[in-house]
TrEMBL record:
PANTHER family per the UniProt record, alphabetical: MOLYBDATE-BINDING PROTEIN MOLA, VITAMIN B12-BINDING PROTEIN
PROSITE patterns (alphabetical): FE_B12_PBP (PS50983), PROKAR_LIPOPROTEIN (PS51257)
Domain Fe/B12 periplasmic-binding residues, every copy: 90-359
Name used for this protein in its record: Iron complex transport system substrate-binding protein
Species for this entry: Desulfosalsimonas propionicica
Entries under InterPro entries matching the protein: ABC_Transporter_SBP, ABC_transptr_periplasmic_BD
Entry-linked Pfam families: Peripla_BP_2
Record SUPFAM superfamilies: Helical backbone' metal receptor
Domain of life where this protein originates: Bacteria
């Protein structure tokens, strides 16, 4: 067989055990192994302790970055754009997830100097207060960064999902870390991602504490929902004007739903978070679904089942809008990675409310049939 053809056909098969291993080491065992190994793989991200004074990471773009202490001599074989001095003191961060990871590590208030959300969109008090005081700068939206303003705030590091800005940041001599990957984070990676960023700030102990807290919550949830009853059929996504987006079966929410003895209906879809599928596939699953998690917040129109159907009438035919349940994320949900343990428990409570009767929803809202004002007018 032609050598190149062999590589093309069989290399994905050879790599599959690596990916399965990277997404299969959750729990106490995975944490213990992290503590005793110099090399850690978290999905597509890797972390390797080369020596006491050098750590190498691979970010979501597959780039090798080298971390060395601020007072150490610069390695001679590392490009300046991929050399990061630690602990990092000044960070500019895209979006909400990266900022929430900083909060999980306990460095948000002391390190964040730039954000891509305006003040009014933030629900994290430290960020709102920092932006109001001028300590944290608004850098423009994710898709239209003011690079002159970014340069002025002089970050040591930029945390971003946007690979397209790497050349511009290289010109500005500002290192960056790509914190998203081409495939959605599995549950293991989501829980442990804090460990990937911890060495940048010398916060490994805080990362371990965070993981232990989340892992304890997951263990308790698994025990609580074991043999809870007939499995529910769940879908996570929405239909927009020109696109249909869902969470794939490899995403952490899908894995969590399956772990909790329910059936995730897009389990056969693989790829990035918010992956696009055709409308027929979405509607097919919608016929049998018990629960729909929409991406839309109440501020984006998800205030009731009727309101959601008005936004896109084709949704009105799926079962959750008629005989099932629909849940919308509240605005602060996307900014709450540092409360991942609470989010896992809340999703379990949504699936099995009879097991969590005293738990009020804090991150999601169950949509009523109609808006309250509509009911009052009647």
């Amino acid at each position: 067989m032609n050598k190149m053809l062999w590589v093309f056909l069989y290399m994905p098969i050879l790599l599959l055990p690596i990916l399965v291993y990277a997404c299969g080491q959750s729990g106490d065992k995975g944490n213990a192994e992290d503590n005793n190994r110099s090399f850690i793989q978290l999905g597509e991200f890797t972390l390797q302790k080369v020596s006491p004074g050098r750590t190498e990471v691979r970010d979501g773009a597959g780039r090798r970055l080298v971390l060395v202490p601020k007072n150490a001599p610069a390695p001679g074989n590392v490009d300046s754009n991929r050399l990061i001095r630690t602990p990092v003191k000044r960070v500019a961060a895209y979006g909400a997830f990266n900022v929430s990871v900083l909060k999980a590590l306990g460095v948000l208030e002391t390190t964040l100097v730039g954000s891509t959300y305006p003040t009014e969109k933030w629900h994290i008090p430290e960020v709102r207060n920092g932006m109001k005081s001028g300590k944290i700068a608004f850098l423009g939206s994710d898709n239209s960064i003011d690079f002159e303003r970014l340069d002025q705030v002089q970050p040591d590091l930029v945390l971003t999902w946007d690979r397209s800005i790497i050349p511009m940041l290289n010109d500005l001599d500002i290192p960056c870390v790509i914190t998203s990957s081409t495939t959605a984070m599995c549950l293991n990676t989501r829980m442990r991602f804090v460990k990937f960023l911890a060495p940048f700030f010398h916060r490994e102990d805080q990362a371990r504490s965070f993981f232990n807290r989340v892992n304890t919550a997951l263990t308790e949830i698994r025990e609580q929902t074991h043999n809870a009853g007939p499995p529910l059929k769940v879908m996570w996504g929405d239909i927009y004007e020109k696109r249909v987006l869902v969470e794939p079966g490899n995403a952490w929410v899908a894995e969590l739903i399956n772990t909790l003895q329910s059936d995730y209906l897009f389990d056969d879809v693989f790829g990035t978070s918010c992956i696009e599928i055709n409308v027929e596939r979405f509607l097919y699953s919608g016929k049998e679904a018990d629960i729909l998690f929409t991406y839309r917040t109440p501020e984006q129109g998800a205030t009731s089942k009727k309101a959601l159907a008005r936004l896109n009438p084709i949704l009105s035919g799926i079962r959750p809008l008629n005989d099932g349940r629909v849940y919308a994320p509240l605005p602060h949900y996307a900014q709450s990675y540092h409360r991942l343990d609470e989010i896992l428990k809340e999703i379990a409570a949504i699936l099995y409310p009879e097991l969590y009767k005293d738990d009020a929803l804090r991150y999601f809202m169950e949509l009523p049939e109609t808006n309250p004002e509509t009911r009052r007018r009647r």
